[in-house]
């Protein structure tokens, strides 16, 4: 794992030189032990990725680029077995619900509107650090989550102690939130087949434990949820994997199965309030979520 962290590469694909610079500077100020590589378009990015063999990788990509759009480039990345595991964050000046929905329907990991001010680019860097590099040292505003509108969160966790702590931490982070807890794979399957379509409103976020109790249980459930949302023509609610495992194979396999993010649980329960406050702040306030459709 240590060698992988040292080999972390973050690719920025954007035809706007100023935007690339702003993202790169923000990342270099926040993220440790990562190499930032710039690409001027999708073609150059694909060439760089095809020559990379080892280490942890992440792509930040503009939606609108000449010759090959961000979504077209994304489709090629995800159709290649050697790059399918690489998470991709889409950034764009556009924030229309239709474009955001289209991006998530394609399977993008996260969608963010480009900030108006240079100082706000650090939000992208904190997202990378916390949700994709699992560096829990990222410091977000102390008010994170306190003024958030009511949100609905589905939590799937088979460890009763963890489930209780998560519920408390989420309620503390988003006091107006409605937390729905499900305890295992069987209960979750029943929930989606019998309860989901009767919910109003639907969950904004799904938090899924990977080992339920085995890895394959979590992967099966991840695939089932994705297929359920697709076949029912429902919006692609982001699914964040929460796990004690930091094994590279677990992380890569979850991304291959279309998890939006893989976050390693903090080993110190005393930090869980801050951990979930940061998680909620990023995913429910900063990131653009799909809102069109049920």
From TrEMBL:
GO annotation, biological process: phosphorelay signal transduction system
InterPro entries attached to this UniProt entry: CheY-like_superfamily, Sig_transdc_resp-reg_receiver, TCS_response_regulator
Name of the protein this chain belongs to: Response regulator
Keyword set, alphabetical order: Phosphoprotein
Pfam entry (one): Response_reg
Response regulatory domain boundaries: 9-129, 152-280
Stored PANTHER family: RESPONSE REGULATOR RCP1, RESPONSE REGULATOR RCP1-RELATED
Species, as recorded: Dyadobacter sediminis
Modified residues (4-aspartylphosphate): 62, 209
């Amino acid at each position: 794992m240590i060698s992988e962290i040292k080999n972390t590469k973050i690719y920025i694909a954007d035809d706007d030189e100023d935007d690339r610079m702003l993202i790169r500077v923000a990342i270099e100020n926040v993220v440790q032990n990562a190499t930032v590589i710039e690409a001027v378009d999708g073609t150059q990015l694909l060439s760089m990725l095809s020559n990379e063999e080892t280490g942890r990788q992440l792509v930040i990509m503009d939606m609108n680029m000449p010759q090959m759009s961000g979504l077209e480039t994304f489709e090629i990345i995800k159709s290649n077995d050697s790059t399918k595991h690489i998470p991709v964050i889409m950034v764009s000046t556009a924030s229309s619900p239709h474009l955001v929905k289209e991006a998530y329907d394609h399977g993008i990991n996260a969608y963010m509107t480009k900030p108006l001010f240079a100082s706000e680019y650090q939000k992208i860097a904190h997202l990378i650090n916390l949700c994709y590099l699992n560096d829990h040292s990222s410091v977000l505003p102390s008010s994170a989550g306190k003024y958030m509108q009511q949100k609905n969160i589905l939590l799937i966790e088979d460890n009763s102690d963890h489930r209780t702590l998560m519920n408390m931490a989420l309620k503390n982070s988003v006091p107006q939130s409605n937390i729905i807890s499900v305890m295992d794979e069987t209960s979750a399957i029943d929930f989606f087949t019998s309860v989901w379509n009767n919910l109003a409103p639907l969950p904004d976020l799904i938090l899924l434990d990977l080992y339920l109790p085995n890895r394959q249980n979590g992967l099966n459930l991840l695939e089932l949820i994705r297929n359920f949302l697709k076949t029912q023509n429902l919006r692609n609610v982001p699914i964040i994997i929460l796990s004690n495992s930091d094994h590279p194979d677990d992380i890569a396999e979850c991304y291959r199965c279309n998890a939006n993010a893989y976050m390693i649980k903090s080993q110190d329960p005393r930090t869980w309030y801050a951990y979930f406050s940061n998680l909620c702040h990023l995913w429910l306030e900063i990131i653009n979520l799909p809102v069109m459709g049920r």
